[in-house]
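hey
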């Protein structure tokens, strides 16, 4: 089963959801804010996506972080920050089993089949 990770208020996540629906693909939605982010789930994602690719440095949450925290960033710190602040994860994430796609632009899911 395909899983779309995101946040319900995110416009790009809504577009991704509509693209999957338009193709008639079965999927479930996991809202990182409402449904939470466990260490196990984050580790599952990090097995498929490099930590710095997953970290959203353009988010409001990132901009609000202390500059000292940002300056001392490494893979371990980034993982810890994402667990504390799930909105630091780039979204949407599309988990199709063997890999996870990060972000969405029109046409990104056209190659998926149900």
């Amino acid at each position: 089963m395909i899983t779309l990770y995101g946040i319900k208020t995110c416009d790009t996540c809504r577009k991704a959801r509509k693209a999957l629906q338009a193709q008639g693909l079965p999927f479930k939605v996991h809202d990182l804010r409402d449904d939470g982010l466990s260490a196990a789930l984050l580790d599952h994602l990090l097995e498929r996506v490099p930590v710095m690719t997953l970290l959203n440095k353009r988010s409001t949450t990132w901009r609000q972080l202390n500059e000292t925290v940002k300056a001392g960033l490494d893979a371990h710190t980034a993982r810890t920050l994402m667990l504390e602040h799930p909105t630091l994860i780039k979204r949407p994430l599309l988990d199709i089993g063997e890999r996870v796609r990060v972000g969405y632009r029109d046409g990104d899911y056209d190659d998926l089949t149900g």
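The first helix runs from residue 11 to 22. Residues 32 and 41 are 10 Å apart (CA to CA).
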